[in-house]
Amino acid sequence: xxxxxxxxxSTIRILRWIPRVVSILxxxxxxxxFIGEGxxxxxxxxxxxxxxxxxxxxxxxxxxxxxxxxKNELIGGLLALLAYLGIGLINHRIFEFGIMYLFPL
Length: 105
What we know:
Blueprint (H helix, E strand, L loop, with lengths): L7 H29 L5 H5 L3 H19 L4 H18 L15
Helix pairs in contact: 3-4
């Protein structure tokens, strides 16, 4: 017998929802950490150097890429990947940790 839950369409649907759920978790984690560090307060940005602010802005672009990827996977994924590589150009140490290679996926 043919089980309707094991059709290729349902498998594709599940594979598309896994990154969406992960993106919600990553956006939530970023917001919790960002707000915990002082958020949008004027004093919080004055204490950061230029590299740190650039990394925060690129991380925000990564998160925007995640949101765009909900509707257009290619554009959102490329935007997130390019911003992630930009973070790597600013701070090359993030590529020393093996787990960080999984972040843009």
